[in-house]
Amino acid sequence: MLATLDEPTPVYSILRSPAVARLHSVTKRYGAITALDTLNLAINAGEVLALLGPNGAGKTTAIRLLLGLISPTAGSVRVMGRDPRDSATRTRIGAMLQVTRVPETLRVREHIDLFRSYYPHPMSVAEIVRLARLEGLEDRFFGKLSGGQKQRVLFGLAICGNPDLVFLDEPTVGLDIESRRALWAQVRELAARGKAVLLTTHYLEEADALAHRVIVIDKGKILAEGTPAQIKTRVTGRRIRCVTDCDHSWLRALPGVADVQPDRDAVVITATAPEAVLREMFLHDATVSDLEVSTAALEDAFLALTQAQA
Ligand SMILES: Nc1ncnc2c1ncn2[C@@H]1O[C@H](COP(=O)(O)OP(=O)(O)OP(=O)(O)O)[C@@H](O)[C@H]1O
């Protein structure tokens, strides 16, 4: 049965299933640069795993290793228990990468037929069209489609082989919020069908909405791993927004303050213990106003984790 938008696959059932792909103590060096440093990572069936990290963290390197495009300097890479470079393994993987380019002068249906021909057990055309929401676009030239429609075609091509493991490298970059949400629904449906999905994104809202599990990496190492909710509590951060005369550098120096950012005429403070920060602020400035205290967003957690590392 397919899960609905509001009912993601329960995490406990994902954790019981065997890993579809695994990086075991993987180090990857490019000359003097260590892109990945003894990294362990597993992706499970029915799971959307989001890999988050700042530029140069090692996300693309991890995906390229799992796709069998590069070899590790040390450690092992396994996809469905085998070397990802095996041709039998490759036919069970689908990828929508930022570098994916397809000819503009073929029709959508021709692209689907071509990609299906690469695989021994492709998904049916009707299923691809339905999952990628390409109804009515089959006879259109790829080059004449809108950005959102093109992304949907690339998503459709990534699933042509009925893959067990799907890589989505920033799949919604440049899309408007409506197209982005539509693609999220498609990704959820893939996971509900038991596919393992590895997603990289710079939209933390996307990881929060979509991922069963998030791994934050920086400089080739894992900084945090867990459900989006667990990552958020990892920083136990709360967000304080208020209007105050307190100096920002003074606020930054208060114990437990992770971040201070101006927000129009107000200030947004991320802090582990908001009560203590507020006590100090009220002692310092009795005119504090427009006060709001809320739970940290994934974005706050991500910033706190990567800034702590820096
Ligand atoms: N072919 C290569 N030759 C040399 N260095 C490389 C190569 N590929 C990646 N690197 C370096 O390895 C590190 C990790 O890069 P990687 O592309 O995996 O990061 P990323 O997390 O995907 O970054 P982004 O979000 O910017 O795409 C970076 O320092 C990068 O410059």
From TrEMBL:
Region forming the signal peptide: none
Gene3D superfamilies assigned: P-loop containing nucleotide triphosphate hydrolases
Residue ranges constituting the ABC transporter domain according to the UniProt record: 21-244
Gene Ontology MF, one: ATP hydrolysis activity
Keyword Protein biosynthesis listed: no
SUPFAM superfamilies registered for this protein in UniProt: P-loop containing nucleoside triphosphate hydrolases
InterPro entries: AAA+_ATPase, ABC_transporter-like_ATP-bd, ABC_transporter-like_CS, ABC_transporter_ATP-binding, P-loop_NTPase
The entry's keywords: ATP-binding, Nucleotide-binding, Transport
Protein name: ABC-2 type transport system ATP-binding protein
